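Why this split exists: single-chain examples teach little about how molecules sit against one another. For that reason, every record in the complexes split bundles all components of an assembly together and asks for one structure covering all of them. Below is a record exactly as it appears in the raw files.
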Amino acid sequence: MSLRSNPRQWGSVAKFFHWTIALAIIGNGLFGLLRDLASSPMQKINWMALHKSIGITVLALVLLRLAWRWYDGRPREESAPRWQQWGARAVHALLYLLILAIPLSGWWFNSVTGKPLQWFKQFNLPALAAKNDELRHFAHAVHEYLFWLLILLLVAHVGAALKHHVFDNDDVLRRMLPFARSRNPPSSEEDRR
Amino acid sequence: MKCLTILLLALALPGAAAATDYTVQADASTLGFAGTFQGEAFQGHFGQWSAAISYDDTDPAQSKFDVEVILASARTGDSDRDSTLPGPDFFNTEKFPKAHFVTTGFHRDGAQMIADGQLTLRGVTRPVSLKVDFKPQGDDATLDVSGTLQRLDFGVGGGEYADTSVIGADVQVTAHLQLATK
């Protein structure tokens, strides 16, 4: 498996970004939604400190991922009806947008509440906006509703990937799986690439 | 006759060396503190406190500070923090409504005047030394006092809150007093 993507496979760097960001987002979503299960105020403070640290990490990874995607390109699109190809592109673009916007809105929410933003107890990041009690609930709602929108898009994203895998028997899912081999051996033409 | 002389001396001596008693102009005076939370500094102040100040810069042995602080009047500009501070894990104001500082002596460290005293906070009494900067202004004066406390010495933010990687161990205390001669 090469670092870079080729027409048939996502490269290992692209796969690394895809799956670490996916895991971090799901874990952080649970952290955020289940924060009130913390057994004490201090545990909640520590959970939210982790939530914020992971969110900042996701933001950094997304920026690196976009830079890599721009440099690396992507495997060719499978033949599919036009509306499906455009649908896939639209969902992918929105997913990229949301995984940028969700950590940024969290950063903004944290700023208007006037809380510190510390990355795994290592260093602090500046506020994006001044403390503003009137924006507190609005900023929180933006942060949370963007997450629910992401979940909605993920249903489409995962559903489409499974549909390709199960019904179309193509490589759309396999070429992004870590360690998976493609169903169809590469043609000699592509081997030479 | 000998007895009378001693009595007269005893009465006269403290008077002869008396320090000036001052009234604190509350509107122009502040009692503040500063700590850190998650790597970021925050400032707070006490809205309600009183101080009896007697001071003589040339004969500091005659000086005395006696300060009482209503702990529930602490404000830091963060509603979460301000609602937590009076609670049992921090100041525990229900059981210990006031903090009290009284000087036991003064000494000079080079040119810097230091007030040594006992601070009682949250039921714990410990020696605390504070830097003193006294500036006469005619009959009046300003008094700036500062020092650093270890919050855990007094059990402020104990239990789970004792984690100093989240809430810093040091708390700076600063006071600016505008004094008027009584």
